[in-house]
């Protein structure tokens, strides 16, 4: 219509575009960024990527997000029925079950390795249903993300008392530790955390009451060995 002003999204200033992008999910941010150079530049702004939430391992491979020093909070929570299959010990899996797990066997661990390299300012980490994440993965996180304040694990069957053994030695800022439904955590490991970090908020719903898959190791002797690796 004559006399009616029209406006394109790219006519907005950067502050407005950043505010707009903050309301859009990762997929749509990526799609929008591919329409022009200006929106791509906004997509790459670190201020948009202080928090990342993923609902399955395949989401980690989409490349619809930016991973960098701005990241403060990371959550990977997988509640698929395949989580039950992944939580079966490898020696007990059938060939079919192994084939179902193989596509994402290292997806989360590889991603966490990138986090160690790129995200030194991470404050909170939440992992649920990540059956293939073990002690070595968490040890790397504790070493390379010294500002961690909260770690919440749920249904991560590969995590054992080895992780708890190093928490008092590497986690100066950690004030919250959840290891819920992690069946290879024992009372011995929990006691070690309570003794080494008396002020920590420790939660272990069902973990120490579940049947462990592995024979517990000598936790105290493992502390120095894990730190020196």
Structure in words:
By secondary structure, the chain is an alpha/beta fold. The chain has two domains: 1-48; 49-228, Alpha-Beta Horseshoe (Leucine-rich repeat, LRR (right-handed beta-alpha superhelix)), CATH 3.80.10. Helices cover 38% and strands 12% of the residues. It has helices at residues 14-21, 26-33, 37-43, 82-86, 95-101, 107-118, 135-144, 161-170, 187-196, 219-228, and strands at 51-54, 73-77, 124-128, 150-154, 176-180, 201-203. Strand 5 (176-180), helix 9 (187-196) and strand 6 (201-203) form a beta-alpha-beta unit. Helix 6 packs parallel to helix 7. It is globular. The termini are far apart. Residues 216-220 have low confidence and may be disordered. Keywords: Leucine-rich repeat. Residues 15-53 form the F-box domain. Pfam families: F-box-like. This is F-box domain-containing protein.
What tags apply to this protein structure?
single chain; 229 residues; alpha/beta; Leucine-rich repeat, LRR (right-handed beta-alpha superhelix); 2 domains; six-stranded parallel sheet; 10 helices
């Amino acid at each position: 219509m004559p006399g009616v002003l029209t406006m394109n999204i790219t006519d907005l200033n950067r502050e407005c575009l950043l505010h707009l992008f903050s309301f859009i999910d990762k997929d749509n941010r990526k799609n929008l960024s591919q329409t022009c150079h200006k929106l791509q530049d906004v997509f790459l702004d670190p201020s948009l990527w202080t928090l990342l939430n993923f609902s399955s391992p395949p989401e980690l491979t989409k490349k619809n997000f930016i991973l960098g020093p701005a990241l403060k909070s990371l959550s990977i929570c997988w509640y698929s029925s395949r989580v039950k299959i992944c939580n079966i010990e490898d020696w007990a899996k059938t060939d079919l079950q192994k084939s179902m797990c193989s596509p994402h066997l290292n997806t989360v661990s590889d991603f966490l390795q990138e986090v160690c390299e790129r995200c030194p300012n991470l404050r909170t980490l939440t992992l649920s249903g990540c059956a293939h994440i073990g002690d070595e993965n968490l040890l790397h996180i504790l070493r390379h993300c010294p500002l961690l304040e909260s770690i919440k694990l749920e249904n991560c069957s590969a995590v054992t008392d080895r992780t708890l053994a190093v928490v008092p030695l590497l986690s100066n800022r950690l004030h919250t530790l959840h290891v819920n439904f992690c069946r290879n955590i024992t009372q011995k490991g929990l006691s070690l955390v309570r003794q080494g970090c008396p002020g920590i908020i420790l939660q272990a719903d069902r973990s120490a009451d579940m049947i462990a898959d592995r024979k517990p190791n000598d936790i105290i002797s493992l502390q120095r060995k894990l730190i020196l690796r």
